[in-house]
Amino acid sequence: MMNRTACLEILKKTITDEIVISSYSTASEWIEMNDRPLNYFSHGAMGLCSSHGLGMALALPHKRIIVLDGDGSLLMNLGTLVTLAAAAPKNLVHLVFQNGTYEANGGHPLPKRDVDFAGMARSAGFKRVHSFEDSRNFEQQIGAVLKEEGPVFADILIEQGPLGPRSYEEMYRPERRRKLKEVLQAGG
Description:
By secondary structure, this protein is of the alpha/beta class. 41% of the residues lie in helices and 19% in strands. It contains eight helices and eight strands. A six-stranded parallel beta sheet has the order 2-1-3-4-8-7, with helices on both faces. Helix 1 crosses helix 2. The protein is globular.
């Protein structure tokens, strides 16, 4: 199993002008290491990162959209896999960090810890599906995965992260949404 922070550090090296959508635990770590105008944080929307990603992918077909989701969040909106596959936006990459817990809600275990999310994505109709449980493979392949024609799905097996109290106030500041809007209106 991998460490989410280490995976995000690897991912940070490959991110350029893509819009990155995230929420809760992953968003807390992402904002600390890669605070940028093209980040979009789903406010109070556990389970809806992928839906926000789909909306952005359809509205902005010229931009690459990368969704950083959690397994607990995905379970709260599992039907999104079928919707994403049916809409088939070519610019969407859905990365799911699977640690077997509802980490943002105190680390409570999922009812079943070893869910085959990659298998679910394939069954839902995703043509490009990946699974990572080794950091070396993740580092070698993630750059190419992010460039594949979407929709792309990747399940990233990680250990549970820190459960300490998190402040979401910084990521939900209205100025963040304004900056994103300004960058997009300027053609970014």
